[in-house]
Design a protein that fits this description.
Elements: E1 8-9, H1 15-22, E2 29-33, E3 39-44, H2 45-53, E4 73-74, H3 81-88, E5 92-96, E6 102-107, H4 108-115, E7 128-132, H5 143-146, E8 153-154, E9 157-158, H6 159-168, E10 174-179, H7 183-189, E11 197-202, H8 208-211, E12 224-228, E13 231-233, H9 237-247, E14 251-261, E15 265-269, E16 276-281, E17 284-296, H10 312-321, E18 326-332, E19 336-338, H11 342-357
Parallel strand pairs: 1-2, 4-5, 7-10, 7-12, 10-11, 14-18
Antiparallel strand pairs: 2-3, 5-6, 8-9, 12-17, 13-19, 14-17, 15-16
Length: about 350
């Protein structure tokens, strides 16, 4: 049962505090209300992305960035709810009375019950996803002494299967696995898989997090996804794809918004002389981190030399040097699960267990 007040914030709450609050909610949305719960606006993933991309200060109040004209459902007009939701296709709807007071909320789980996933956007049917599944996984010893990293189970389901299932939810049916270490085990595990199109491409030597994509030059002809095989991204993949196309990026990085705390007091010095202007005790700074999931145009593959080692970060640096457009699609830190190390894998398991209980 949703406690709707968990999703309420006052208009002068700082952006930083709102993002912290959203990180503890089931859904990435808050409703800005006054002291009597009159709806003033909404702040969701869309507003959060705009704020991050515009590099705005997180100390500012949320009413500066909220959507002041959200779509609402009106109490007493329940017969119109389905039609409004079909037309607008949001993941959240405040339900307000005649005085504009929020009396309930419709969240994604409620909408899924009503429409059984038929409402949500899908990827084009011919989209491919390349998964870099050839790494040694040395940071996951002792698991990877026996298994390839791609087959390490997370609550009895291999991480690679979880990644594939996430893409399948959005209609993706074509997967290209770049293999190397313990490749025969991965091929054997998926040998009988018939529910989606799966192809294997074998590196002769380790080529990094991007080099192996050279094997797809004759395969990929349209916009495609790339994912490392140790990350799970809880986001709308169709919106990521649409964002990439709209922005006309050669590469779009899915970036997680994190607040990094400095463990010391930070001194700010005036421009001239040795006098200080301020001192902050253990301040936090917002950053965007690379999650290991990307959208690429096939032209990016032409920048790869055959069988040459290259990390994705190297490819991105090369794009920037050549003035090619690279963009970022921000998500909240809680929507990125990484199992690159044992501690992170344990955190991923706990997060998925919590989600299963919701």
């Amino acid at each position: 049962m949703t406690n709707i007040t968990d999703y309420f914030v006052l208009p002068k709450t700082s952006v930083e505090d709102v993002i912290k609050k959203m990180s503890n909610l089931d859904q990435n949305v808050v409703f800005i209300v006054d002291n009597k719960n009159h709806l003033l606006g909404v702040f969701s993933n869309e507003e959060m992305r705009d704020l991050i991309l515009l590099d705005k200060k997180h100390s500012l109040p949320i009413d500066v960035f909220m959507n002041k004209n959200p779509v609402v459902l009106r109490q007493g007009n329940e017969n119109e709810f389905q039609e409004i939701i079909k037309k607008t296709k949001h993941f959240y709807y405040p339900i307000v009375n005649a005085d504009n007071v929020i009396v309930d909320v419709f969240l994604k789980k409620d909408i899924k019950k009503m429409f059984a996933d038929r409402l949500f956007s899908k990827l084009p049917s011919d989209v491919h996803t390349a998964i870099m599944a050839g790494g040694l996984g040395t940071r996951l010893y002792p698991y990877t002494k026996v298994l390839p990293k791609a087959l390490v189970p997370i609550n009895d389901i291999p991480i690679l299967t979880r990644i594939i299932n996430n893409f399948k939810k959005f209609g993706c049916q074509h997967f290209d696995l770049i293999l190397n270490h313990k490749k025969e085990m991965i091929k054997a595990y998926y040998a009988e898989e018939k529910s989606f199109d799966l192809n294997f491409y074998e590196e002769k030597e380790f080529l990094g997090t991007a080099g192996g994509l050279c094997l797809l030059k004759d395969v990929i002809k349209k916009t495609f996804f790339v994912s490392n095989c140790d990350v799970l991204i809880n986001a709308d993949y169709a919106k990521i794809y649409e964002f990439h196309i709209k922005e006309k990026n050669l590469i779009t990085i899915v970036g997680a918004s994190k607040n990094v705390q400095i463990s010391y007091g930070v001194i700010h010095v005036k421009k001239e002389g040795s006098a200080i202007s301020a001192i902050e005790e253990k301040p936090t700074f917002p950053i965007l981190t690379n999650t290991g999931m990307y959208v690429l145009e096939p032209e990016a593959l032409l920048m790869l030399k055959d069988n040459q080692f290259m990390h994705m970060t190297d490819l991105i640096e090369q794009c920037l040097k050549e003035k090619k457009k690279v963009g970022v699609f921000p998500i909240l830190d809680k929507d990125w699960l990484d199992m690159g190390q044992l501690e992170e894998m344990e955190q991923m398991i706990k997060a998925l267990e919590r989600k299963a209980d919701e």
